[in-house]
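Extended Data, record AbrB/MazE/SpoVT family DNA-binding domain-containing protein
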Amino acid sequence: MYKASLTSKGQLTIPKEIRDFLELDTGDEVVFTVTDIDNKTIFFEKVEKKELCPACNGTGEFIENNLPCFLCDQAKYITKDKQIINPQLLYTLAKNKVTLTMKTQEPVSGKGIKMYEIPRITLSSIVYPETVLNKIQDLLQMELLKEYSPKNLYNPLDVFDSNLNNILELFITQKGKEEVKAWFWGTKRKNI
């Protein structure tokens, strides 16, 4: 059990252990819910930041294919703060007969093992068409790029064309490649 004292301004400081447990940062919101009026008991939880699912555009399905969206699990929204590849996504993929393969290294004949700075993912399915898989694979790859990029690579001003070409090889769709180019080059050109 953790305790906090009420300040003269009517505020409470949430103990550090609780903030760490809930992964609360400055500006995060929490919701308070009365759970027992008689015992004056409340429950509070972090409000997850949500955004429309980029795979299905908030419809919960791939309308043109009449298939459920496996990125948001038909919820129409994804949690913004979560790592995109998480246990919930892996469960949803399996439930929808989609396989995710992630490579962090690859054997090179006669030279040992080549390590990748950014994991490379591949989606496959006997249910979903390749167009849907490619689109979502690029979305997931972009999130991995944001998460795993070395800081000098993540800063658009420090990206060299040779590095960018290596990054572009991770993407399948032209839209994904254009988004990556805009991400790096767009900021670079604005600052020149």
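Summary. Confidence is low (pLDDT under 50) at residues 188-192.
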